[in-house]
Amino acid sequence: EPEVTQTPSHQVTQMGQEVILRCVPISNHLYFYWYRQILGQKVEFLVSFYNNEISEKSEIFDDQFSVERPDGSNFTLKIRSTKLEDSAMYFCASSGDSNTGELFFGEGSRLTVL
Amino acid sequence: QKEVEQNSGPLSVPEGAIASLNCTYSDRGSQSFFWYRQYSGKSPELIMSIYSNGDKEDGRFTAQLNKASQYVSLLIRDSQPSDSATYLCAASYYGNNRLAFGKGNQVVVIP
Q: Is B45 in Cβ contact with A43 (below 8 Å)?
């Protein structure tokens, strides 16, 4: 069964360091997303990406965040200068349709900022 | 701004019973509603979607939507220990996969 894969599963970093989280969406999907979940809190939308550009972003997705699809298969989230409050589980998701709400989530990358 | 609220605490149900979960949303512009299941430490997984008022059944799951009252519910019939998880309610505008999630309701099915 096709699945979304994410690496790394867990990353520990020092405050101020750059982090890149990687995702391989399901191969025939066209819509890609990053969500995050701070421990014990809601899953929050960060950004959606379609046709090689950001289609929507939340207020959380400020200038320290960026996304790209460098090679047609990977979809990355970069956090330029991490803060303590960036510690969370980051979920990549993909969808074959923009309307259904049927997102296929990866298993997540847990980011711990010290 | 879409807000989705799930306010009840953990729900314990005996195996074979019905688990009932509720969710309210604040934005009347929301048109699509979803229930995702999240096992501890795992990613959300879609189990039900509903777009129109009324009931929608899929196996042991029934989703109910009432747009006038702005609530969505999920019934799990014949609950099994494998149903023990957190159930996330989510809403979006039609044509937009930007989901607003509730905090979730934890369900524990007791064998």
A: no
SS3 content of chain B, % helix, strand, coil (to 5): 5, 55, 45
3-state secondary structure of B97: coil
Euclidean distance between the first and final Cα of chain A, in Å? Answer: 37
Q: Which of B1, B26, B43 to mutate to test the interface with A (most CBs of A within 10 A)?
A: B43
CA atoms within 13 A on the CB side of B43: 23
pLDDT tens digit string along A10-67?
999 999 999 999 999 999 899 999 999 999 899 999 999 998 999 999 999 999 999 9
With CB atoms and an 8 Å threshold, state whether B49 touches A101.
yes
Euclidean distance between the first and the last CA atom of chain B, given in angstroms as a whole number: 41
Are B43 and A48 a contacting pair at CB < 8 A? no
A19 contacts A82 by C-beta, under 8 angstroms: yes
Output the average pLDDT for chain B: 92
* Closest CA–CA distance from residue A17 to any residue of chain B (Å): 25
The closest alpha carbon to A81, from A49, A113, A36, belongs to A113
Is A9's Cβ below 8 Å from some Cβ in B? Answer: no
